[in-house]
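Entry, Tuesday afternoon. Goal for today is a structural model of the target with magnesium ion bound, before we commit to ordering more compound. Inputs were pasted exactly as handed over by J.K., no edits. I checked the ligand SMILES twice against the vendor sheet because last time a stereocentre got dropped in transcription.
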Amino acid sequence: MHPAAKSLVDIARSQDSEVGDGTTTVVILAGEFLRECKPFVEDGVHPQNIIKSFREAARLAIDKVKSLAVSIEGKDAAEKAELLKKCAMTTLSSKLVGGEKEFFAKMCVDAVMSLDQDLLDPRMIGVKKVMGGSMRDSFLVDGVAFKKTFSYAGFEQQPKYFDEPKVLALNLELELKSEKDNAEVRLSDPGKYQEIVDAEWNIIYDKLEKCVASGAQIILSRLAIGDLATQYFADRGVFCAGRVAEEDLIRVTKATGAKVQTTVNDVTPDQLGTCAVFEEKQVGNERFNLFRGCPASKTCTMVLRGGAEQFIEEAARSLNDAIEIVRRAVKNAAIVPGGGAIDMELSRHLREHARGIAGKGQLFINAFAKALEVIPRQLCDNSGFDATDVLNKLRQKHASGDAGSTNFGLDVNSGGIIDTYEAFIWEPSLVKINAIGAACEATCLVLSIDETVRNPRSEGADGQPIHAPGGRGRGRGGRGGRGGRGMRR
Ligand SMILES: Nc1ncnc2c1ncn2[C@@H]1O[C@H](COP(=O)(O)OP(=O)(O)OP(=O)(O)O)[C@@H](O)[C@H]1O
Ligand SMILES: [Mg+2]
């Protein structure tokens, strides 16, 4: 892969892990910064000069974002949830689920709000995908949900609903295991054979008895629960599920307070978990085990529905962006107007600043300012409007200095300009701060590469190295082409 392209991929990744949204923004910005630098480099300006000015410009821009950011701290819960919903809706509007953004934004906000507000651990939000139904059939469970595991005969006789059940979590096999596969037993007296068979049965019955004696009504195990155990539990009004996926079991334990046991000897009551309601419920073609109203830890599960697998996958990715954004907004509680408004304002601010600089720095900072306009321009292009027209309107508005003019951005519905703050097109300020910082760093990195030496002969059509015929290593590979910028100095 081209090294410059690789660094762009890296910043997108870092944006994704740092903030969770704005990956497109950061790549577009970096691309535009590089495009703006290119004429200078071709004119023989030393890259270090550009780098210095760009870093300065990024710093100024980030300071400006911070000063423009509006805090949503200190509002009451309902109002805050409403504000967070707006942020989630802005994130979702460019996605496949954009048509139902209000519905999903609410779901994301509810999901984040149901977490422990100090930790806000996104791993406590489970996402389950069930094919079939429409998007709107998706729902949020205030607890843990997972697909019914494989079950044996007798399972249907087990109760499927409990109020405040005791939950026992195991990492133990509850299956009658004949040892004949992996052990050799030599008997001199055929009568002893029955004793060995009985011993095997006793071991398993002993385990099952202890499970029931612990008082548990729901028994979950990461390992198999066999047919004998299933029937045994069914006869005693106990629900069981074997081969529960590890992540599900962990969430159940965190949510209900159960502690995973590797043996059933001495299970004390404090090792059992509980929740308000347990039930098994049909969702589409699947059955789900739901644990609602869990006391120990705050967790929730989104059950996503949709007609096609790819669609549900894309919906899950988009919701992940929105969840991250809501989390960031809860933590940082500062937002800026989106739709290109903040970018136009930063651009204006930097141009004004540049005017006060004597020397080449003025050009570079102006170039940086111009590059920031790429965000509203791209939004115009994507929504099918004339970018030049809209950008001129925006520049004029931002320069006017009227009250609130700093909040004007693109109206994707009409192609005009609107106060995006008033229109609730909001983004957490962190998205912009991180995007500008990362894009600037990537640009500086590419600029500071003196030259790139390529050896086309050693590269196959797909960019993979190929071996010279006959295996003769040719050292420098003939006249290796010199790519890169070929700067005049
Ligand atoms: N309703 C809207 N009107 C105007 N602009 C909007 C609207 N909704 C979102 N935007 C803008 O769209 C941009 C975000 O687009 P998008 O979500 O496609 O990219 P991203 O967040 O940079 O990357 P990704 O979501 O792929 O990680 C932001 O600048 C945001 O302000
Ligand atoms: Mg986005």
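The mean pLDDT is 86.
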